[in-house]
Amino acid sequence: MRRYLLWVVVIAAVLGGLAAGIGRLQQDPANSSTGAVKAKARTTDRPARIVSISPTATEMLFAIGAGKHVVAVDNQSTFPALAPRTSLSNYRPNVEAIAGHQPDLVVLSSSAIAEPLRRLGIKTLVLPPAETLDESYAEIRKLGTATGFEPESEQLVGKIRRDIAKITAEVPDRRDRPAAYYEIDNTFFSADSTTFIGQLLKLAGLRNIADEATKDSSGFPQLSSEFVVQADPAVIFLADTLCCGQTAQKAAARPGFAKVQAVRNGRVVELDDDIASRWGPRVVELYRQLVDATKEL
Predict the structure, then answer these.
(1) pLDDT tens-digit profile of 137-187?
(2) Rounded Cα–Cα distance for residues 62 and 115 (Å)
(3) Does the domain at residues 171-292 carry the CATH identifier 3.40.50.1980?
(4) Where are the alpha helices (DSSP H) in the chain?
(5) Which of 79, 88, 157, 250 has its CA at a distance of 20 to 30 angstroms from the CA of residue 213?
(6) Considering the entire predicted model, what is its pTM?
(7) Are 126 and 108 contacting, i.e. CB atoms less than 8 angstroms apart?
(8) pLDDT tens column, 38-61
């Protein structure tokens, strides 16, 4: 059901450089004057009707306290449960359908329809998939600025930083990094160390087998069953349990996988696709899973 998200991530990663400069909202100069003016602007300049066409942005909006101003989210924004989920598509976003919700701010993961929305007088903020933790933090701050929840966004970034640091302190000091295979879908697409996921694997003290596989500049190489078996990873992370119905049992039954040490030692870890593909507030949960699964290696 969510298989297409891989392609959204891959395309956005390739075009990220083009989209990086898009989506900065113009700031009212009055916001930089006295504290009283700032307080007034914070109250009056907050968008009252926000539409999110990005599952990651939806999670960020609710995490910083702006959820009460969100009137509609796309059909893949499944978290939090109280988000006003609609039939709006983030894969094929429709300008008219979005405008029908009468938003004064639309948050997007791609710039594809940003200009048409602006021509209708609707402000937009484009937040492409983050490629690093720092980019994720920056996007949370951008949302805070755009919605009038700057202090709350700073508090959230601080908490995520502290949580990541605390978990990182638990990573064993190893001479050799254990090999890890991170599976995005059951056709063996993975993520190398140039990606957000790759950064987390490295931070968790792991060696990413996808780095040895490809000259693919997208950061998301397609491996093969034979390649994974030959690489003999110590741990396998399945980020395709929801989209593709993969389980540790199904992975173990693949040709040749029975002799892979991750399978032999029961270290095939089933991840939640949504958490694994939305690099916002719940990245702490994903990172915790990566580290906990490999502490004993």
Answers:
(1) 999 999 999 999 999 999 999 999 999 999 999 999 988 999 999 999 999
(2) 26
(3) yes
(4) 5-19, 35-44, 55-63, 95-99, 114-119, 133-147, 150-168, 196-203, 225-231, 248-252, 261-264, 273-277, 283-292
(5) 250
(6) 0.82
(7) yes
(8) 333 344 578 999 999 999 999 999
